[in-house]
Design goal:
By secondary structure, the chain is mainly β. Helices cover 10% and strands 38% of the residues. It has one domain: Phosphorylase Kinase, domain 1 (2-Layer Sandwich), CATH 3.30.200.20. Strands 1-6-7-5-4-3-2 form a 7-stranded mixed beta sheet.
């Protein structure tokens, strides 16, 4: 799994990351479509498939949170560090 790191000047609101919005493209391939019940519905433009993007919460720097999530066997497709936030890319459930 490769981790894309993208700088951004947009900060979160402290409770939920506010840096993602409709049309945001992460890692040059994941286009955010809309807010979902958990995370954001997105589209992988490279592989032409829907995905789900969820924040990786926890203590530590974003790269540390990504390492912990990847080692937990959480079934990540990819991970993206966007500003000060870490996001997991997962397979979207049917109907998402």
């Amino acid at each position: 799994m490769a981790v894309a790191i993208e700088p951004t000047g947009i900060a979160g609101d402290g409770d939920r990351p506010a840096c993602l919005s409709e049309g945001t493209v992460l890692a040059g391939r994941y286009r955010v479509l809309n807010r979902a019940a958990v995370g954001w519905s997105a589209y992988d433009e490279r592989l032409s498939r829907p995905v789900l993007i969820v924040a990786i919460d926890g203590d530590g720097a974003p790269d540390e949170r990504v390492r912990r999530a990847a080692s937990s066997g959480a079934g990540l497709l990819d991970a993206v560090i966007f500003g000060d936030e870490a996001f997991a890319v997962r397979t979207a459930a049917a109907g998402v």
